[in-house]
Amino acid sequence: MIVGPRRVLLGVLLAGALVSGIVAGCEYFRDSPEQALAKERWKECAAELRDVKLDRVDVDGRIRFTYVAGNERDRVVACLRAAGESGGPLPEAVASPPAGK
Known about the structure:
The protein is an alpha+beta fold.
C-alpha cells in the first residue's frame, strides 16, 4: 500500500491525467472552423425548405444532405454556391435523393 507523499503524488498525477483527457476529449468534439461556417450557411439556405435534411458536415466543411424534390436540391446548391462567393470557400455540397429513389 502506498502511504505518505507518494500517495499524494500519485493522486496528483492521476488527477492531472484525468483533466488532460477531458480537455482533449472536448477538443475532439468541437466543430472545425469549416464545419461551423458550413452549418451557418446551411441554416440560411435550407431554413424555408421542408424536404431537405442535413445528413452531416465533414471536417473540411463539405455539406451532405438528402432531398426529396429536385428543385429544392437545386435551390440549396445554388444558395450554398452563392454564399461561397461572398465568404470563405467550402467544398461542393453533396446531395443525395432519399433511399429507394
